[in-house]
Specification:
With about 150 residues, the chain is mostly beta strands. A hairpin with a 2-residue loop joins strand 7 and strand 8. It has one domain. The protein has a five-stranded antiparallel β-sheet with strand order 2-5-6-9-10, covered by helices on one side. Strands 1-8-7 form a three-stranded antiparallel β-sheet, with no helix packed on it. Strands 3-4 form a two-stranded antiparallel sheet. The longest helix has 10 residues. The chain has one helix and ten strands; from the N terminus they run E-E-E-E-E-E-E-E-E-E-H.
Length: about 150
């Protein structure tokens, strides 16, 4: 079982109007891995209601609960050429639990955990390239998708 998640007690963060990703062409703009807009929910990007002058509007907001599914796969390209993929093997979401300690109300933030494999989806079945497996927090996984693996030239 994956034991990567860390916890700490904090104030609950409100949803932000600053998004960690924009999807102008259906793909996260500027991210190293190809993250399509279907992953908005996993990145906790959603439309929420905002009331201005008693009028309800929909607005895209960013939360902090990153939740990927087993089997989610992301491709890495270099100069337009496919190089490899990473695939979620195990996942526990980040998020908040309400806690009351010593009559002080707060929230425990759990960083979640992701175990993923790096592989070549185009390798033959007998020559499956599984270069490595890693375990990181859900927040670190989002950073990997955005900025790349630390040992890669990007």
């Amino acid at each position: 079982m994956l034991e990567i998640s860390t916890e700490f007690t904090t104030k609950k963060r409100n949803r932000s109007t600053e998004l960690i990703a924009a999807f102008p062409n259906g793909v996260a703009d500027g991210w190293v891995f190809k993250v399509v807009k279907a992953f908005k929910s996993a990145l906790d990007i959603k439309e929420t209601d905002k009331v201005v002058d008693k009028i309800k509007h929909k607005q895209w907001t960013q939360g902090w609960v990153f939740a990927f599914d087993i089997g989610d796969t992301f491709n890495y390209y270099e100069d337009g050429t496919y190089k490899y993929s990473i695939q979620v093997q195990f996942s526990s979401p980040s998020g908040y639990d309400e806690v009351i300690e010593n009559a002080v109300e707060g929230y425990r933030f759990k960083s979640g955990g992701i175990q993923f494999a790096k592989f070549d989806i185009y390798a033959s079945r007998n020559n499956f390239l599984n270069e490595e497996n890693r375990a990181v927090t859900a927040v670190e996984f989002v950073n990997i998708l955005k900025y790349g693996l630390k040992n890669e030239k990007n």
